[in-house]
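A quick aside before the break. I want you to see a complete sequence-to-structure record at least once, exactly as it would be stored in a machine-readable document. Don't worry about memorizing anything.
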Amino acid sequence: MVASAERPGRHSSFWLWVIGLTIALELLTCVLRFGLRLESTRDTASVLAGLTCGVRIHHSYIGGLMMLIASGLWKRSASLAWWMLVIGLALFFSDMIHHFLVLWPIVGSPQFDLTYPTGSS
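That is the input. The structure line, written in C-alpha cells, reads:
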C-alpha cells in the first residue's frame, strides 16, 4: 500500500467507506430487529448455540477477527487487507452502535449477551 501522504484521496476514501458501510449495516440490523422483530439471542439460539458451545457471536467479533487478519495480510496483499480492514471496522462500529446507542435507549438494555440463554442449545 502506498502511504496516504503520497495518495491524498486514499485516506479520506477509507473513512468514507467505513462510515458508509457502518450506516448500511446498522440500517439492515435495525430493519431486522425492529421491522421484522427478530432478536438474535432469541431467534438464532436453537441453531447457533450448539455450534458455538453457547457463546453468542456478535458481528463485532467477526469484525475484530477481520481486522487482525488484515494486519497480517498488509504486506502480501494491501488491496485485500484494505477492504478487510474497512469491512472489519464497519462490522465492529455497527455492532457497538446497535447495542449501546440504539438498543440501550430504545429497549432499556444493550442486550450485549455473551452467551445464549440456558437451555437454548
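Two observations worth writing down. Residues 9-107 form one domain. The chain has five helices and no strands. We'll return to this after the break.
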